[in-house]
Amino acid sequence: MAMNRVKIEICGTPYLLAVEGEPEYYEELAKDLNAKMQGLLDSSDRITVTGAAVLTALDYLDELRRSNDGADNLRSQLKGYLEDALSAKATAENAARELRELTAQLERSRMECDRLRREVGYMRGQDM
Hints:
Low-confidence stretches: none
Largest sheet: 2 strands, antiparallel
Structural class: alpha+beta
Helix content: over 70%
Number of strands: 2
Shape: rod-shaped
Radius of gyration: 37 Å
Mean pLDDT: 95
Distance between the termini: 99 Å
Number of helices: 2
């Protein structure tokens, strides 16, 4: 993939990046990062740009870890749901097979009952 160059500015310092993908995406990331860091810098006279960068990085790492944990939890739930669905499918297939067997057995029983009725009717006809 071709590399694109994008110029961004974070807390007054310009950076020239070589990126894969759309420059607008990285500009948006830089805008968000700058706003977060600038908010920290504006909130205290004691915080340095480095301190704001460290705090911002920690905040983003915390957010990333929580997102990853949430994604792992969702994957685990989805795996459980898929296992439940496969079990339910197997149960339904077994029930369908049993229903077919019972339906066939019922049909054989009906045929046997009809045969016996005819036989009984034939025997009654001979008794007279």
